[in-house]
Amino acid sequence: VVDPDVLTENAVVPPVLLTDLKINNLIVVPGEKDSPLSKKQNLQVKLILRHDQTNISIGYLALNYLYPQQNRYAYRMLGLEDEWNEAGGRREAIYNSLRPGTYTFQVKGSNNEGVWNEKGAELQIIILPPLWDRWWAWLGYLVVVSGIVYTVVRSRYQKFELERSLHLKELEQEKTKELAEEKKRFFT
To answer: What's 109's DSSP letter?
Structure first.
């Protein structure tokens, strides 16, 4: 015999944790060489990735042990999307080909009764641009291009000045020759 008045609703708000991370389809182990994760606990709050680490998969979990298969999740990546993605019972978010920039991954979860943890978990992700696309590289490109333009303009100006001075010397020689001819004609 089951008395429905005795049954209580599960009103516990489940905490949501980020559990694992895959970059370019490889599991990231915290503390390993070249690992962006430094802590041994669940994921840290800030993650800095290189420009070639743009395919990521983030695992998450709501800590509700009463019918955990009925937990529901929603996630979003601020900086890429504003709307929540309803994930149902799936506990992994996958993003491919992220562009360099700053993103904030947010996930929230509910227990078996539909009580949502609106605060959820959050992870800031910074994807650095490649070396050739950083501000100081662009400054270097600007300096090189400016140098080339300056060199080209200066050499053309020097060529123009040289041609002009040659032309003036030719005119001067012609005038001198004409003057000599005039003197010669005058004396004869």
So the answer is: E
Q: Report the alpha-carbon distance of residue 117 to residue 52 in Å, rounded.
A: 34
Which is nearest to 13 in space by CA: 61, 76, 64? Answer: 64
Rounded to whole angstroms, how far apart are CA atoms 166 and 110? 88
| Tokens, residue 165 | 């001075």
DSSP state of 130: P
- Give all strands of the β-sheet with 46-49 in edge-to-edge order: 46-49, 116-127, 101-110, 72-78, 85-88
Q: Distance between CA 159 and CA 169 in Å, rounded? A: 15
The amino acid that residue 149 corresponds to is V
Question: Does the pTM of the predicted model rise above 0.85?
Answer: no
Tens-place pLDDT, residues 117-173? 989 899 999 999 998 888 889 999 999 999 999 999 999 999 999 999 999 999 999
